[in-house]
Amino acid sequence: MFNSETRYGAVAMTLHWLIAFAIIGMLVGGKYMHGLPNSDPNKFLLYQLHKSTGITILALTVARIVWRFAGPVPALPATMATWERWVAHLSHFVLYALMILIPLSGWAVASTSSTGVPTVWFGLFEVPHLPVPATEEAHEAAEEGHELFGNLMILLLLLHVGAALKHHFWDRDSVFKRMLPFTRTE
Ligand code: HEM
């Protein structure tokens, strides 16, 4: 359940893969629903689904960050160069920042919309709007931020997946495997 000095535990792995697949789905789904004409009968439902999943990702990310600091984090292999460690730490920090900034800016988009449509979490309860002014400028800034952070996330994900594959196939170290459930690392 807990991390050790050499492997991630069940909680960290579950949060990692749950959030990873949810974010990939949200990036693809977000671009798709944004491009739909207003007349599309599914648009309203897709937006509600997107907002509900995004709020869930925000909550899971907060839990993940708390868990990250609550226990040990497996060390990077001693074979990694100093610049590689820096890139790894910096990219992880930016990934965490984006996992917070993307849903927050999306929440701001919904909160500043002149339509006043509420966000209803999977049809169960209403999520209050953020206390931001519902002006045209604020709405446009939130939309631009949400799109920019999303595009940055796509770039960073490519770097992140590329780095994981390099560790596994090129360096042949345990960095990828220790985040994979049902595997062993020596
Ligand atoms: C990790 C979580 C999220 C991801 C990865 C994500 C991703 C995206 C993407 C890629 C788009 C299309 C942007 C574009 O190309 O213009 C989008 C649009 C949108 N997102 Fe999110 N989103 C997330 C969370 C949220 C949340 C929490 C909310 C609201 C509570 C939200 C509300 C919206 C809205 C309203 C749009 C449409 C903007 C428009 O039509 O201009 N998103 N999202």
Task: Give a verbal description of the structure.
The chain has 186 residues and is mainly alpha-helical. The chain has a single domain (10-179), classed as Fumarate Reductase Cytochrome B subunit (Up-down Bundle). It is built from four helices and two strands. It has helices at residues 10-34, 43-70, 82-112, 136-171; strands spanning 119-121, 125-127. It has a two-stranded antiparallel ribbon with strand order 1-2. A hairpin with a 3-residue loop joins strand 1 (119-121) and strand 2. Helix 1 runs antiparallel to helix 2 and helix 3 packs antiparallel against helix 4. The structure holds protoporphyrin IX containing FE (HEM).
Lateral strand order in the biggest sheet: 1-2
Q: What does the largest sheet look like?
A: 2 strands, antiparallel
**CATH architecture name:** Up-down Bundle
Annotation, overall tally of beta strands:
2
- The CATH topology comes to Fumarate Reductase Cytochrome B subunit
Total helices: the number is: 4
The best one-word shape is elongated
> How many domains make up the 3D coordinates?
1
Small molecules bound in the structure, each named once: protoporphyrin IX containing FE
Compile the SSE list and pairings.
Elements: H1 10-34, H2 43-70, H3 82-112, E1 119-121, E2 125-127, H4 136-171
Antiparallel strand pairs: 1-2
Helix pairs in contact: 1-2, 2-3, 3-4
Notable characteristics:
186 residues; mainly alpha; Fumarate Reductase Cytochrome B subunit; two-stranded antiparallel ribbon; 2 strands; binds protoporphyrin IX containing FE
